[in-house]
Design goal:
Elements (H helix, E strand, L loop, with lengths): L1 H58 L3 E4 L4 H10 L8 E3 L10 H6 L6 E3 L5 E3 L4 H8 L5
Parallel strand pairs: 1-2
Antiparallel strand pairs: 1-3, 3-4
Amino acid sequence: MSNPGKKRKAQREQQQPSGSWMRKLLYALLIVAAFAAAYYLGLRRRTSRLDAFAQCLTSKQLKMYGAYWCPHCAEQKEMFGTSFQYVPYVECGIKGSRDEAPVCAQAGVKHFPTWQFPDGERREGALALQTLSQKSGCPLP
């Protein structure tokens, strides 16, 4: 009688670590999936929000003149994130030199970034999104 009891006990001990290990793995996967979903949804919400704003700037005929080597231009681009693809941007830098592209020289751009508004006003430097919103009339979500 003692032999079958020992066998069952040994079987239970073998099953517990395996079941416990699987349960821990499942919990870990669920936690990772929850963080991934939260990150994805947060990034998606932020991006789509600024997409509409950037597209509005385009419809209002604003222009941003910048240069690939300009740190303030990079700062301005970061403010928009992936939505910068919708911003009306004119590249003034010429790869391999610090010369200015002819289109920018003809426009009279001296500093980067330079924002040109439809009324002809220009503002130099990285502008806050709130400032662009106020000046353009595009609502910032």
